Amino acid sequence: MATNQGRHQTNLPTPRKIRRGCNKELYRTIKRLGIYVPDERLKEGETLYYKKVIGKLLWIAENRSNRKLLADWWDEEVSAELATLWEVDRENLSKAFRAAFGG
């Protein structure tokens, strides 16, 4: 009798999918903030976020269905550096990210 091991396991996303996802999330966040972020700073922010996601990829993949937990991680690990880079209030940035991300 064949077992269905691995049938419900999903593969990790490719680096391209991760980068595109990070870009979309930050774009939606900026849109909710209603500010202009220069292209150079936007690229730096995307790179920063991408590196943080790659560093915690296994944990993020395990918790992919828990948006609140992922948004909490973003608040702790990403928001402070991104707020400094973009010169925006961290609290407003976090609220905009949660609204855009759904957490």
Notable characteristics:
Dehydrogenase, globular, 6 helices, 103 residues, mainly alpha
How does this structure look, described?
There is one protein chain. The chain has 103 residues and is mainly α. The chain is 71% helix and 0% strand. It starts with 14 loop residues before the first helix and ends with a helix. This is Dehydrogenase. It comes from Paenibacillus anaericanus.
Shape: globular
Approximately how much helix is present in the residues? Answer: over 70%
pLDDT < 50 runs, ≥5 residues: none
| CA-based gyration radius | 15 Å
β-strand percent reads under 5%
| Mean of residue pLDDT values | 91
**Beta strand count:** 0
Structural class by sheet pairing and helices: mainly alpha
SSE string, helix = H, strand = E? HHHHHH
How is this fold's topology laid out?
Layout: H1 15-33, H2 39-55, H3 57-62, H4 67-77, H5 79-86, H6 90-101
Helix pairs in contact: 1-2, 1-6, 2-5, 4-6
Condensed summary:
With 103 residues, the chain is mainly alpha-helical.
